[in-house]
Structures are given as structure tokens and as C-alpha cells.
Amino acid sequence: MPTLAKRVVGGLLALIGLVLTVFGLWYALHLGGSGTATFSTTASGANPVLVPPTVLNRVDGDVKVTAVPRKGSTVWLAAATPSDARAVLAETGHTTVTGVSTKPWELKATKSGTGTTPSLAATDVWRNTATHEGAVTMTIEQTNAPEAVIAQATKGQIERVDLTWERKSWFVQAVIVALVGLFLLLSGLSLLWSSRHGGTKPVEDLAVPEVPRPLASTHEEETA
Fold first, then answer.
1. In DSSP terms, which residues pair with 140 in a beta bridge?
2. Which pTM does this prediction carry?
């Protein structure tokens, strides 16, 4: 392979390998051996937080919803059908989780509505509820999809809401990506090194030496 071509191919392989290695290691470190992905969002004070089915039912697996209150506060969690959750919130002020972002490992959220939302605990539309001082966790199974979850501070304010998914195969996939990237990186660096130092020198054609004629013997000279 020509030297220039080696450098181009080696550079591309090294660049792709570096990106894949960093990408794989980033996910492997954040997921851990259990393949656990946790995303958090800062809630809007006393306003309720709505987690719709577009987020809860996005992955085929259980998701843990955790509402963490501020010190001295009490938080309440409830699950319901999406239409019922929207109906009880109506146009009052609340925060809606719209997606996830793996770069800062945060939940994307938007605020909408105005005014103070009344206490929702007394409403009879909830499939499941949980409340007490400290963090409250509820596991949402996909067999009940579609489903929505609302977190509301019954006393004080909410500090944040966490969503956690767990799948061991995610960690394995991240490690595989990192290993493939490392292989490509080393292959690219090897090509760059060989091109820089001239690579393998071609074997030159060996000239066949001329066989010298034997010297005439003394007897032959005298005869001549």
C-alpha cells in the first residue's frame, strides 16, 4: 500500500476508534456492571411533575420513578392513565418530563400552565399511590402501559425527580463498543507508524553473479 494511502486509512481508523472507545467507556462507566441508567430533573418548587407514557413506556422494561423532597417536605406519587393525569392537572402550573439526555444524564422537562395546583391525593383516578417523608419510589411495569405518573409535594417542595432503567445488556454492549474502538485505534496507529518509518522495504532483485571461468592448467598451457 502506498505511503499516502496508509496515512489516510490509518488516520481514519484511529479517529473512528478513538470516538468509539470514548463513547463505549463513557456509557460503561455511567451504567456500571448492572446496566443502570438514572436520569434526574430539578422540579419546579411546589408545582407537580408529570411523567407521561412517552417517557415511561419508551423502553421495554420496568422503570423506577423516585421523587425526592426538600428537607422537611413530604412528597406524594401516583400512577394513572394518561388521560386522567392530564385531566386532573388541567391548565394549572406543572412540569412535564419530555425526554432524557445522556450527556449530562438529565431529564428534559418543560413548564406549562399557571396557578397553584390543588392537592391531588383525594382524586379517585389513581391506580397506585405512595407518600411519606423522604424519597418515594414507585416501579412502573410495562404490562400496564400506557401509564403516567404525577409527583406532588403535599408539604414543602420537591427537590428532584429521578427515572431509573436497568438492563445488564446495555453494559455489555458498551464494553463491546469500547473494545471495537480500541482495536480500530491500535490498527490505525500501527498503519501511521509504518507509513512514517517507510513501512516494509521491498526486496530488491538479486543479481546472479557471473561464474568465473576456471584457470587453464599448466599442462594445457604447455600443450598449447
1. 63
2. 0.74
Q: How far apart are CA 90 and CA 195, in angstroms?
A: 67
Which tens digits make up the pLDDT trace of 69-94?
A: 998 899 999 999 999 999 999 889 99
Name, in order, each residue with C-beta under 8 angstroms of 130's C-beta and a sequence gap of 6 or more. Answer: 76, 77, 78, 136, 137, 138
CB 98 within 8 A of CB 121: no
State the distance between the two ends of the chain, measured CA to CA, in whole angstroms.
Answer: 61
| Alpha-carbon gap, residue 3 to 24, rounded angstroms | 31
State the angle between helix axes of 168-196 and 3-31 in degrees (0 to 180), rounded to the nearest 10.
160
Classify 14 in phi/psi space as left (phi over 0), alpha (psi -120 to 50) or beta: alpha
Instruction: Summarize pLDDT for 103-155 with one digit per residue, the tens.
Output: 788 999 999 888 888 888 888 899 999 988 889 999 999 988 899 999 999 88
